[in-house]
Amino acid sequence: MAVQSMTGFARHEGEVQGCRFVWELRSVNGKNLDVRLRLPQGFEALEQPVRKAAAAAFARGNIQVSLSVSAVASAVEAVVNEAALEAVIDLVARLADRVDARKPALDGLLNIKGVLEFRDPELSETDREGRDRAVLGGFLAAVEGLKAMRQAEGAALAAVLGRQVNEIERLTLKVEADPSRSPEAIRARLAQQVAALMDTGAGLDRDRLHMEAALLATKADLREEIDRLKAHVAAARSLLAGEGGAGRRLDFLAQEFNRETNTICSKSNAASVTAIGLDLKVLIDQFREQVQNLE
């Protein structure tokens, strides 16, 4: 399964056993999988299979699932409430000696509230099970639609993230190639600092001063941070090209990108490197924001 976004929408309609049903699925970002389900009365048996199917298809995201059901007009039954009809006929008979009126017509009786009722036909247990299977099949079709949309958006996001990773690599290489990092530049800068201290006449020990300068030069070296950034770039590309949910791991890499960049900025002794580090931080923030949309 390719990289997926966590946002999407799907709708599926169907008709079975005299009813029309509509599934609607809406998905947004979430740390874990959270399925919120709304089913009409009489369809409670679908809750567990629906949750199971959603969990099999998606790993993360807040997914709202709703099912609406309406009766097909031709499937509605007209049913006479026998008790209400008998009560009306009995009342007419008891009032016949007291009221001079014509006998009630059939259409008049049927127009009395409660005598004629319209309702969905009663289903047998077998018919109900068949209906539920068909409605569940509609949900599975909606899941496939949602999955396709999340994958399409995931592919678009992966392209954006891929370009950002390329830019992170470019800026990393720019730090690596910065003239301030050349051994000659570092030696010249330290020599100037040592000379300035010696000129103060503070009685500093020359050997100790050179030792401290060498230690400072080692601490200021950015080789490890640059190598780790390159490794993180390779890992990000592998995740974007791979299968399955990569959102959490890419989010972790974004934190690692940020950690190494912060170290580069803190160790930098050149304005040019610091400026590149700040550009990296802005880019990594944008990368991490986009990663939040991935499953």
Please explain how this structure is put together:
The chain has nine helices and six strands. It has 295 residues and is of the alpha+beta class. It has three domains: 8-74 and 122-151, Ribosomal Protein S5, domain 2; 78-119, no CATH class; 153-291, Butyryl-CoA Dehydrogenase, subunit A, domain 3 (Up-down Bundle), CATH 1.20.140. It has a four-stranded mixed β-sheet, covered by helices on one side. A two-stranded antiparallel sheet has the order 5-6. Helix 1 (47-57) links the parallel strand 3 and strand 4. It starts with 7 loop residues before the first strand and ends with a helix. The model has no long low-confidence stretch (mean pLDDT 85). Residues 3-158 form the Endoribonuclease YicC-like N-terminal domain. Pfam families: YicC-like_C, YicC-like_N. It comes from Hoeflea olei. This is YicC family protein.
List the helices and strands and how they pair.
Blueprint: E1 8-16, E2 19-28, E3 33-38, H1 47-57, E4 61-71, E5 77-80, H2 82-95, H3 106-111, E6 116-119, H4 125-177, H5 183-198, H6 206-220, H7 223-241, H8 247-267, H9 271-291
Parallel strand pairs: 3-4
Antiparallel strand pairs: 1-2, 2-4, 5-6
Helix pairs in contact: 1-4, 4-7, 4-9, 5-6, 7-8, 8-9
Family: Belongs to the YicC/YloC family.
Domain Endoribonuclease YicC-like C-terminal: 180-295
Keywords: Coiled coil, Endonuclease, Hydrolase, Nuclease
